[in-house]
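Course assignment 3, question 2. Fill in each field.
Student: A.L.
Task: Predict the tertiary structure for the chain below.
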Amino acid sequence: MRPTPPPIAVLRFHRRSRMTHRPTRPRLATTLFASVGLLAAAPLVARLPAAPPQTDPPADFDARHAALTAMVAEKQAAAARALADARRLIGKAADARIGGTGGDAPYKDGLLATTAIPARPATKARTLRMLVTAYCPCKACCGPNARGITASGRPVSLNKGRFVAADTAVLPFRTRLLVPGYHDGSTVEVADTGSAIKGDRLDVYFPSHQTALEWGKRWVDVTVVE
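Answer field:
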């Protein structure tokens, strides 16, 4: 009895499987190109320099290494000594400047380790005999363009309204003065000027016109602090 053939679907499956698992064969063109490439690279490979032969270190290698290490250590020690000498000199100069004994000043992390540095002494005070008047920020005293700003650019509220106007050729801005009878004897700054304030004239500022009128005009000995 003749066997029944398998269904068509099964035949197709077997055919597809055989096609899938069929081993690939190298093509002739690929093989030829690879061979030509190897032949072309052969002269280049032959021209490469040969690796240097392995040689032993010189007999005096250890001695040279020890001498180089000693030289580096000597240079480092010389640099440390120079830095210490520089710090000592700076310490002496700083100590002498602040009124010390001139000895070596201690250092910590490269900084002068002084406990306290006294304030710079004030310059020698001088006294000027000046004619002192008073003014306020009103238009009668400062003109119609009064805006509450002094000639130095600072507002009239400076030091709670306590400053003076002076001739800047005689007393520059920020000069501190002691004017007897003004601001309870505390120092005030020169913060303003005026066309009528020349030479030995001084104008003290008051917030109100009435207080300025009460001051009037008087000759006083003004102390220039700085």
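Instructor remarks: Residues 126-224 form a domain with the Barwin-like endoglucanases fold (CATH 2.40.40.10). The chain has five helices and eight strands.
Grade: pending
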